[in-house]
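Look at one such:
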Amino acid sequence: MAADTLRERLADLHAERVRTWEPAALRVNIDQRRRLEETANRDGFIKAGDRVAPFVVKEVGGEDLSLGGLTRVGPVVLIFFRFAGCPAFNVALPYYNEALAPGLKALGATLVALSPQIPERLKEIKTRHGLNFAVATDADNALARRFGLVFEPDEASKAAAAAKGSFIGDVTGTGTWELPMPAAVVIDQAGIVRFAEVSPDWLVRAEAGPILEAARTARLAVAA
């Protein structure tokens, strides 16, 4: 039976890694996720009740997306992810396309996935999965930094990447190790955060249900 929740789908991804990865590589991955959970500055995370200042991000098709434009007719949901080739996000974004995007569209809400990756390298994930929502570049992690989401991999992870001849700054096109923690943020038409879930461990993620409910509540509050 196919997994019905995002947690289950990501658990399947991890189980496949347990079966197929070398133990040393698996340990680096597990330790990095655990360390991020233990050291994350949760007080600095974006949270419900925060007011979001105006911002502009660039959609992979070239369009500038502003907070004002995104919330013109309803709330906006922002999904932060690392980069197009990230296996976990190649699980998460199709899930949101199936389980979240249709309900948000029915509410008149907008869904945007954000990564620091440059647009020309980011657009392929939208095409590959046929995503029915905007995918945009958060240049230099500007918005992620404002929301307290930015981190750098630990030294073991950097060393493992270097051993493979890989540097995340080359993959993203940013030239740095910085990446955003996965997060789902619902912002209402007044620019107030109605829901925020940040996941230092990138194999733990917000399910569609709570995000959709927060968007519905934000919509009803404006209507009232």
